[in-house]
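Tutorial, part two.
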Amino acid sequence: MLVIVGYIVIIGSVFGGFMLAGGHLAALLQPVELLMIGGAAVGAFVVGNSIKVLKATFQALPTVLQGSKHSKESFLELMGLLYMILSKVRKEGLMSIESDVDSPEESPMFSQFPRLLADHHMIEFLTDYLRLMVSGNLNSLEIETLMDGEIDTHHHEAAIPAQAIQRVGDGLPAFGIVAAVMGVVHTMASVGLPPAELGMLIAHALVGTFLGILLAYGFVSPLSSLLEQKAADAAKQFECVKVTLLASLNGYAPQLAVEFGRKVLFSTERPSFTELDEHVRAAKAR
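Running the prediction step on this input gives:
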């Protein structure tokens, strides 16, 4: 929703200011210029990226219209689940969670958190490392190294759509110049026309430069920035799980382990110590 609001502000400010300055919107209506710029940008996007990147970008684009699913409530749920798992491990041993890890959809603990269960990447990350803990063949340093490698891979994958869109944004001003040059060529080929008509042709040519810059910095590049922010938000839940599980492996009690996880969250989503304490107490009472 904020994306649409931002676009409306951009359009209103730029075109409204142009009209207030005495300009005529009809002079900016150049569909051929838009076709050249947009078509060239789409073509370059297809040529410059693999099928994997194209699919990832098209899948990521609809998410810019959605709010972040990583809120304080979602992190409280995550830490509540971690607390329940680690408490069971502390009381009954690591082998007690084997069935929960193998079939999280059927687990009484996991089923209490349907929103987390719907996040397949998160559940897979959590259960994979719980499974390694159950196996007992790896120490905390080895598990931390594996986690760091997987989180780095996740960062790289999540950044691919943003990088692809940013490259399109970077190229749009140049494509605007190409369209403007084509307009100038057309104008020069029309020498002999009355000055008023030549002036109109030059104005049409300059619209290409205007459109390229506006599309780049007003519409496309901000989407790249937004996708980067969403990727950073998503990465925090993996870091929260990592820190919490490692704290448990190093001998900390479940309540302290989830406190470690709380500390790595962004301040805007991080619950207070009291909120987390009340939440884990409620989870303990279930």
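The chain has a mean pLDDT of 87. In part three we will examine how such features are distributed along the chain.
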